[in-house]
Amino acid sequence: MFKHVYFGLVLGSTLLGAVGLVQSFHTQGLTQKIAGTIGIGGATTALTALGLGIAYNEKNSDFEREFKQKLDDNSKLKDRELAGLKLQIDELKSRIKVLEVDKETNLKQISELQEKLNVKAEEYLKAISAKDIKIKALQDVVDAKDTRIEDFLEDCKKHTVTFFSLRYNNLDAIQKALEKADVSDEIRISFDKRLRDIASLKQDLTDAMVEIKKLNLTDFKEILDYIFEFDNKFLNVKTRWKDAQVKNFKSESQSLKTSLQASIPKEDARARIRGAMDEVDERITEKYEALLLNNNSIHSQLLDLLEQRNLVIDDLTKQNEELQKPLLATGDYYIAEVANTVSLHYYNRLGYKLDFITWDESETGYTITYAIRKNPGVTDTELFPGNTRELLASECGAFPGTLPKFEFNYQNCSITLIVTTKKAIKKEQAKGDIDKIWIPVEKFESYVKNWERVRITAGSTGGKSPTAKNLALAIMRSRKGQGEIRLYDPQDGSKKDYWDMPKTGTTHADNVAGMEALCDLLDQRSKSKANHRFVLFIFDEVDSTIAQERENNGYYYFRDKVTYSLKQASHQNIGAIYIGQACDASTISGMSWSDWNNAVQLHIGANAGIWLDKAKTVTPEDKTKLLEQYRKIQEFCDRKNEELGLDIFTDPGAYRFALAVPLTGLPKFIQLPDFDTYDYYEIMGDGSSNPQELITSVIEPIQEKVLSGDALLSVKCPECESDNVVNNGMTQAKTPVQKYLCKECGHKFTAKHLIN
Predict the structure, then answer these.
(1) 681: exposed, middle or buried (C-beta count within 10 Å: 0-12, 13-18, 19+)?
(2) What is the pTM of this model?
(3) Minimal CB count within 10 Å: which of 364, 628, 754, 756?
(4) How far apart are CA 375 and CA 46, in angstroms?
């Protein structure tokens, strides 16, 4: 392409040289020498322009070949290395996923494969780093291209000065030849004019060489301008000399006209002269027009050359900019497109370079891993300025209410974007699986039968009283009903009164008196070593009694008695159940966590999670394990209650659980039995020394009437004395007892209640 650009310049100079050489063969003497000099100068100009063009074209071609070869080598090497490492990384990930099916058995193999995966990831990043080095090398080549062009322009200066110096020497030789020529005075006048022209050309050449040497050349066109300028001056001198020759020719023609007037007719002579002049003018006109066309073509082609050069530089600059951009994911899968959107977002807006490595899908969304070798210490704060996290949530299709987040791995210079696109599917826990992490209701009685001091907590309507009743009767059943239960219930008669058993006290003041009686009984029995009858005290609303006593009386008499009873009760065959709402003892005025360490603690439902969260006696590892079990059990109970349409606050048969904190060992979860699973009168009788005889002598006649069908006529509700009573099944005791339900007030009772 470059030789076509210089074709005009080479052709013009060649024509000039050819005309001069042809004239040198058809003239004589000094004119022949001048024509020869002009011919040699034109040929020299053509050869110089041709040499410069070839040199420029070779330099440009060498650079393009070198750049293309390095670019191809870098691309092939990068593709081979990255493809191989990617296959190895994918293979390791697949093997890890297979082993994670049985994670505990294959833990060692998974660890080894994970270590290999990290090594391959590091090699992958090193390969990408090597690519950056190649990119830097290409940039150096681009910079070297600019330097070579500058070197070429500097060479052009030197060659142009050398060319002008040779032309100067040629003109100097012509000048000396004209000065030494032995000619007539008439010819000397013509020679003097030529000597002045030659001196002027020499001075112009001298000035041009000085200017070129000082010139800070940035464009090849400037050198060509100097060459064109000198050629134009040289042609002007040639034209003046030609005009002088024509003038002399006309003068000679005039003399010939006179001498030939007699021998040649005037008209014939004029025709010959006119024909000769027309031929000369036509030839001169053709030469001038050809030179003008060539000059215009050369300028046009040089401008095209410069434009092409700028286009090449612009193209190389764009390629370099593309190579500086982050590596993007391939394919049209939506996660790959999101990965590229995120990468370009950080590159264009924040200037961080995130090179894509891989992506992976999960049950709840997907993850995208990037290399951050250009920004190895980037932090969460730098990646999420302003509302960047919200913008990414929109671009990544995050699930409403969730925001993307980054996980950092500074060891191998990578970060992982985690995006949640859907809710996690809850895995249903089978009853058999849940039984492995809690004590099922079938084992409730055998687990609690030896408890003596128990703290029961739950929120309002959490089932504290029914659970306490079941627990107390389960303890007494293990003792075959031998003993006594003393119940103190400050909530007597309220909507939350689920107790279906005799009460010793029904106010907070009775709670205080009952606790005093417990402590007095402890003191009495400590002085007597006989076998004492088992007595089980139940105190409801303990937290409220402590707070009320403190507010009304200004001291902690009741609290101090509670603390005393916790330390001494088990030594005297005395049991105590303390019922309250706060699982965090520090929220009870004057109490602390250590006060309850001498009692088994039973925290129902949500209180189990609260206690675990604040517990200080459980190691972090055990706490994490128990909290995970708590979550699974809670989900199981919620699902079962939802399937059966049971309300945990009102339905006696709803699924419920509690956290049992024993005196020694780790806490355990326990399934709670249905409300009213245990019947007080079935287990305890009426409290007489021979309850079975009382049941036989008094209950059997009533039972006979019930079975005969006329019992409803004489049965009345012991609460409202209404006779609108219906049968409600039989108890499960060895001697079954009839149950009744009052349709007026809803009270449930048995035939044993009719004794009173």
Answers:
(1) buried
(2) 0.41
(3) 756
(4) 57
